Predict the structure.
Amino acid sequence: MAQELSRAGRVTVWPLLHDWSSGARCVMAYATAGHFGDMAVLGVVPVEGNVFEPGDLFAMAGRHEPGRLYTGMNSDEQRACWLACVGFSARLMGAPGGFDMEAEWAVDMARTVTLSKGAMYGHAKVMAGRIRLIDGDLEARARALIPAPQVAA
């Protein structure tokens, strides 16, 4: 059973092309929690009808072969580093079509990984799951980042 974590603070939201072969997209959100933001929190903002939404963000990260970049750690940590990089990069560089805001959010944490070799991108832990923005208008704005729900052909 997933745990829920709720906070308020800066949230970065953007559309993510997560599968090149199918063109599958989802809406991602990145926030931080913990002591001085040492925990990266990533989540998919559920969009009704999007059958291509990745269910497990750590599995999605594994399909991007993070072991080629992050060596000397186990596969869970490699995947966590890839996720932290995606969120940190979207915030730092401003993902196309995305936005930042101050908001209350809650994430159903499917998984948490602690990085044993030290912090990456300022994070010692990475949590991933499904995220929702408490403000309905902000949630609607986030869901609108993919033009229409993607459905199987």
About this structure: The first helix runs from residue 57 to 62. The mean pLDDT is 89. Strands lie at 3-19, 24-33, 39-45, 99-114, 125-133.
